[in-house]
Design a protein that fits this description.
Elements lengths: L1 E5 L3 H12 L3 E5 L3 H8 L10 H8 L4 E4 L2 H7 L2 E4 L14 H13 L4 E5 L7 H11 L7 E5 L9 H6 L3 E5 L3 H15 L19 E5 L1 H32 L3 H9 L20 H14 L6 H24 L6 E5 L14 H11 L3 E5 L4 H7 L1 H5 L3 E3 L3 H4 L5 E4 L4 H4 L3 H7 L4 E4 L6 H6 L3 E3 L9 H5 L8 H9 L1
The chain binds nicotinamide-adenine-dinucleotide and uridine-5'-diphosphate-xylopyranose.
The site of nicotinamide-adenine-dinucleotide has 26 residues, from helix 1 and helix 5.
Length: 480
């Protein structure tokens, strides 16, 4: 099949490369010349596992890049739209990029095409695409519009794309269904999984292919993201209760998640969800519901708990360090989650900004997200309040506390004695629960985490007169 994918960002680039991997001929289109230049040289502009290898494999053969939508429309049977749908000032999804691309497609269409919205969009966007196509001169006989929401996660985008639980297509006619079935057939009939050069360790069960109408497909995407965000907020709320009464959120997760109706995934308490999807999609879904006359206020609670989770974390930093002005803090992790260099809506960046505003001096380390974080925090870095370090131990030199803000594996296997020896005070505040409290206590750290009691290694701390925490406070914390 000849496919074009318009918008070569996280979703578009992964989709384009993976469609080529499935045997299709693909044109990836973007209007960012720097991105195109890099891609043409085989350089992947984002950090995503396996993407460089697959780009190398297909670039110049089944996969090319272009800045021209007219070229893409001419050369392909199926056109996927994967441009951004960011949050607008009103909380709705900003569909300006989708509209611009639709108009451009309409101008160049001369034979039958299938247009597929893969960007995350509010329900009834496919109707708007159809209208816009016609208004801009495309004959309704020359196109169909379908929805094919994308469920990949950053950090595991390639394997999520090639080994999905399900593929959802929303269609209004058999032409669209047949084309999309053909495109995804290697993932649904198992033929892709039987190949020799499989990405190892992914299991090999064929994806469920789910066919709905376009409105349902659009709703499935918003529902999925809102539901997952709700699971995270629910567990963060439970973590707050557990902390106050001496419960342990890890044990609660295990006990609750063993019920197959609930499952353990997306029940990790932490500093709240971030990224370019959940925050904007929950807000946009709330706006959609309001517009159609339903008050989905459960989503308000999901968002409120999420925002509050950052404040709960900052409260712990204050508890541990008392005053914050001029305190030296090492931050481990800037990306919104592990496995990506994406810092969009990263809780870590928000926390760093809040601490800088309170006068802290930050030294940060992230395995891959520092360049993007630098541009996000540009001004602050210029003011010398945030420095980047080349490894976690250098970041921890002479600090009053280490904050763990992204769940990178690297931070879950630190050399604890070495870390301890680097720090001025052995205080670790872990927003991702990467360690068991008893392990940190044995290693001599004051350790705060999420949904579990803080630990204070009394014997060792008594030997450190400069530490701010007195024994009485420690005992009351341990009792709590
Ligand atoms: P992104 O910002 O990384 O990429 C969008 C790309 O579109 C950019 O490269 C931009 O240059 C390009 N673009 C914008 N206007 C264009 C135009 N007129 N012509 C050609 N290219 C144009 O966005 P993303 O993270 O890939 O998200 C894209 C969509 O997919 C969004 O709706 C998002 O909600 C959804 N989504 C994202 C993820 C994710 O993990 N990032 C997962 C599932 C769904
Ligand atoms: C999400 C959806 O999972 C994916 O299906 C959709 O296509 C795009 O949006 P992504 O944002 O890439 O994917 O990452 P995800 O793994 O969902 O994590 C989102 C945020 O939730 C991160 O900040 C992560 O740290 C946080 N999270 C996730 C938790 O706090 N606890 C969890 O249990 C899981």
């Amino acid at each position: 099949m000849n496919i074009s994918v318009i918008g070569a960002g996280y979703v578009g680039l992964v989709s384009a490369v993976c469609f080529a991997e499935l045997g299709h001929t693909v044109i990836g289109v973007d209007n960012n010349p720097e991105k195109l230049l890099a891609l043409d040289e085989g350089k992947v502009p984002i950090h995503e596992n396996l993407l460089p290898e697959l780009l190398q494999r297909h670039l110049g053969h089944r996969l090319t890049f272009s800045s021209s939508i007219s070229h893409a429309v001419r050369e392909s049977d199926v056109i996927f739209i994967t441009v951004g749908t960011p949050q607008s000032a009103t909380g709705h999804a900003d569909l300006g990029y989708v509209e611009a691309v639709t108009r451009e497609i309409a101008k160049h269409i001369t034979s039958m095409k299938l247009i597929v919205e893969k960007s995350t969009v509010p329900v009834r966007t496919s109707d708007a695409i159809r209208r816009t196509m016609t208004l801009n001169g495309a004959s309704p006989r020359l196109f169909s519009v379908a929805s094919n929401p994308e469920f990949l996660r950053e950090g595991s985008a390639v394997t999520d794309f090639l080994y999905p639980d399900r593929i959802v297509i929303g269609v209004e006619d058999s032409f669209s269904e047949e084309r999309l079935r053909e495109i995804y057939s290697p993932l649904c009939d198992g033929s892709y999984y039987r190949r020799e050069d499989l990405i190892p360790g992914c299991g090999a069960s064929a994806a469920h292919f789910i066919v709905t109408n376009t409105n349902s497909a659009e709703l499935i995407k918003h529902t999925s993201n809102a539901f997952l965000a709700m699971k995270i907020s629910f567990m963060n709320a439970i973590a707050n209760i557990a902390e106050r009464v001496g419960g342990d959120v890890d044990q609660i997760r295990e006990g609750v998640g063993a019920d197959r109706r609930i499952g353990t995934s997306f029940l990790n308490a932490g500093i709240g969800y971030g990224g370019s999807c959940f925050p904007k999609d929950v807000l946009a879904f709330r706006a959609v519901a309001r517009e159609v006359g339903y008050d989905f206020d459960l989503l308000d609670a999901v968002m409120r708990i999420n925002k509050d989770q950052r404040h709960q974390f900052l409260r712990k930093v204050r508890d541990a360090l008392w005053t914050l002005r001029d305190k030296r803090i090492a931050v481990f992790g800037l990306a919104f989650k592990a496995g990506t260099d994406d810092v969009r809506e990263s809780p870590a960046i928000e926390i760093v900004e809040a601490l800088v505003n309170e006068g802290c001096l930050i030294t940060a380390y992230d395995p891959v997200a520092m360049p993007r974080a630098l541009s996000e925090l540009g001004l602050r870095v210029g003011e010398n309040t945030v420095r980047m370090a080349s490894d976690p131990y250098i970041a921890a030199e002479d600090v009053d506390a280490v904050l763990i803000l992204t769940e990178w594996n690297e931070f879950a296997s630190l050399d604890l004695p070495r870390l301890h020896s680097q720090m001025r005070l052995p205080v670790v505040i872990d927003g991702r629960n990467l360690y068991r409290p008893e392990v940190m206590e044995a290693a001599g750290f004051v350790y705060y985490s999420v949904g579990r009691a803080a630990v204070f290694p009394l014997g060792r701390l008594n030997a450190m007169p400069e530490l701010l925490i007195d024994e009485a406070a420690c005992l009351s914390h341990q009792a709590g």
